[in-house]
Write a structure and sequence with these properties.
single chain; 402 residues; alpha+beta; Cytochrome p450; five-stranded mixed beta sheet; three-stranded antiparallel beta sheet; 17 helices; 12 strands; binds protoporphyrin IX containing FE
Length: 402
């Protein structure tokens, strides 16, 4: 069993470690999988005992667990449906997952994303016109609105409802910082909104994803209203904050590397490498759960059936055995193996969309601003969610002159 004292590893859910987990991952990785308290008693209303989990931090263990969905299940989380409504797809196992994924693969296509590209470009320009130049907190003015507007557009939700969507999505994730009653009200509002949308699209179709979902059929099977609702909620939650954090993390990294900014302005072929290296170096999703369906063993440690597992994508992406000099941000890695979008059957459905948004955003910013630097106000990392890694506040100076 693990040689580390449990109390040591329990710092994983402390605000300081959430805000800057990488030094601690380095300390813990060699001892992984290690057993730790991932939710202290009382964090979630109604759960009186601390919840323990096994943290997987080595690349090989993380990749192996993600590929072995029979042993490391996504649909058996005892907390799912308790602290938030159970999500389709990401909290499903085969055969339900297989059926659902086939249906949505039909609708969430590269073609649909390509069609959306001119529109993403136009929204990016609009947001940057509003943002102006000089010192700006890029999170509220750009990194938050871009992904929400894109998802709203994809789903066919009127633009003016975007603040409401953002509020629902935040409330869904705020399980340690919002009263459970308030979250329940918000989740209910979101559910009835999407319910009404699905009914409306069944009556009168439109050129949007909800209509495509209503009409989708594979082998004579289609989605019912509850499934459509669950999927819309999932897109809103899975696609918003993640992309916001990719944009914020990428701009924070580039603000610290003025020479790289200059180089990128001259050579846009490096943009894709910047996006992938950002995903590896500061992964927007740090940790997600699994539950073991049978006794298994990883790195010589026995994990009994029914164990709660924390898959640390962020730690795996800094494993020196897989990524030499993992704490250096480098564009010459030829990355094809990071796990920022997961691996196996749950591989991120929205990865092409997230990449398209990041590429359009970065290219447009490079066109407009010869220089990018840190602002004078402090940057603040989020320090409450165990799942995501990103900035709450990121003041940057966008200079229109050289
Ligand atoms: C940088 C942005 C993003 C990151 C880092 C990210 C990361 C991830 C990861 C790690 C998973 C795998 C979850 C698991 O292993 O259980 C995942 C799944 C998923 N993502 Fe993303 N995601 C991003 C953007 C998006 C966007 C824009 C959308 C949709 C609009 C989206 C929709 C989904 C869905 C539906 C799944 C579930 C797939 C399944 O279970 O079959 N994601 N994402």
């Amino acid at each position: 069993m693990t040689t580390l004292p449990i109390a040591h590893a329990d710092r994983l859910s402390s605000p300081e470690v959430i805000a800057n987990p990488y030094p601690y991952y380095r300390e813990l990785r060699d001892h992984s999988p290690l057993n730790y308290i991932f939710l202290p008693a009382g964090t979630v209303a109604g759960i009186e005992e601390p919840i323990r989990a096994w943290a997987l931090m080595k690349y090989q263990d993380v990749y192996g667990a993600l590929r072995d969905h029979d042993t490391f299940a996504s649909g058996r989380n005892p907390l799912a449906g308790k602290i938030a409504p159970k999500l389709a797809l990401i909290q499903d196992d085969p055969p339900r997952h297989t059926r659902f994924r086939r249906l949505v693969n039909r609708t969430f296509t590269q073609k649909r994303i390509d069609e959306l590209t001119p529109w993403i470009q136009a929204v990016t320009m609009e947001l940057l016109d509003e943002m102006g130049s000089g010192e700006i907190d890029v999170i509220p003015s750009f990194a938050i609105p871009l992904p929400v507007k894109v998802i709203a557009r994809l789903l066919g939700i009127p633009g003016e409802d975007y603040f409401t969507l953002k509020r629902w999505s935040d409330a869904f994730l705020a399980f340690s910082s919002m009263a459970p009653e308030d979250r329940a009200v918000s989740n209910k509002e979101m559910a009835s909104y999407f319910g009404r949308m699905a009914v409306a699209r069944r009556k009168h179709g439109a050129e949007d994803l909800i209509t495509a979902l209503v009409e989708a059929e594979v082998d004579g099977e289609s989605l019912d209203d509850a499934e459509i609702l669950g999927f819309c909620m999932l897109l809103l939650i899975a696609g918003n904050e993640t992309t916001t954090n990719l944009l914020g993390n990428m701009l924070g990294i580039l603000a610290d590397r003025p020479e790289l900014w200059k180089q990128l302005r001259e050579d846009r072929s490096l943009v894709d490498a910047v996006i992938d290296e950002t995903l590896r170096f500061e992964s927007p999703i740090q940790r997600l759960p699994r539950n073991t369906t049978r006794d298994t063993e990883l790195s010589g440690i026995k994990l009994p059936a029914g164990s709660t597992i924390s898959v640390y994508y962020g730690a795996a992406n800094r494993d020196p055995l897989e990524f030499p000099h993992p704490d250096e941000f480098r564009l010459d890695r030829g990355l094809h193996n990071h796990v920022a979008f997961g691996a196996g059957i749950h591989y991120c459905l929205g990865a092409p969309l997230a990449r398209a948004e990041a590429s359009i955003a970065l290219n447009t910013l490079l066109d407009r601003f010869p220089r990018l630097e840190r602002g004078s106000a402090p940057a603040v990392r989020q320090s409450t969610s165990l799942v995501v890694f990103g900035y709450q506040q990121l003041p940057l100076i966008f200079s229109a002159a050289n």
